[in-house]
Amino acid sequence: MKTVLLITCALFGLSHQLNFDKILKDFEDTVDSQARDCYGEFSSNRASLDAQLKLPEFPDDKNFKCFFDCVLSHLNFFDKSGALVEASLKKYVDKDADKIYAACKDVSEPDGCDKFLGIAKCIRGKIKELSR
Fold it and tell me: Could you give the 3-state DSSP secondary structure of residue 35?
């Protein structure tokens, strides 16, 4: 599933070998084609998504968190219980996927929207650590 790779790269954009602007565009195209109803559900749009993805840190905003929870749910990044899907991560994050999954699979938050942000921050941090 190319989508998970695009999401991972777009959200974490840490590889110096990748064109971040292209990754963002590809991710936004994927949201447009596969999770478009999340825009309406969370009163968002592509321009807002683009601006938020380019920030150095994820916004600590409930609407932002839940928008991405919606998108990643539509894209099957999480299973029905809210757990990170190991097979997807391993399939699309070639290098060190086992380490990233092991470090981030047990992130726990009481709210699904907060859990997304916790997992996203964990993956982002682990990729930074492993890319040094």
Answer: coil
Instruction: Report the predicted TM-score, pTM, of the whole model to 2 decimal places.
Output: 0.67
Fold observed for domain 2-130:
Recoverin; domain 1 (1.10.238)
Domain residues of the chain, as ranges?
Answer: 2-130
Tens of pLDDT, residue by residue over 82-116, are 788 888 777 656 667 888 889 988 888 888 788 88
Q: Are 62 and 113 in contact (CB under 8 A)?
A: yes
CA distance linking residue 116 with residue 108, whole number of Å:
9
Helix, strand, coil: what percent of the chain each, to 5?
A: 65, 0, 35
Helix count and strand count (H, E) for the chain: 8, 0
DSSP secondary structure, 38-57, as one string: HHHHTT--HHHHHHHHTSSS
Query: What are the structure tokens assigned to 12, written together?
Result: 């974490």
